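Spo0E like sporulation regulatory protein structure dump, as promised
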Amino acid sequence: MDFDQLNESVERLIQNLQFIQSLEEEGIPMSDDHRDMILRNIDTITNMAKEDFKAQLLFDVR
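structure tokens r here:
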């Protein structure tokens, strides 16, 4: 597993979640595009991790 790539992907996920949270604080709900962006982030991260981890993250987002 490439930990540098994994770390970058996790950082990108965190930044995207913070962005979505800031929008929600302004009254803008998570859109389907935002949800897809997060799911793509998770997919990238979990392609480097175990399937169990991926399944739990996907369940949490949905």
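The chain has a mean pLDDT of 81.
lmk if u need the other ones
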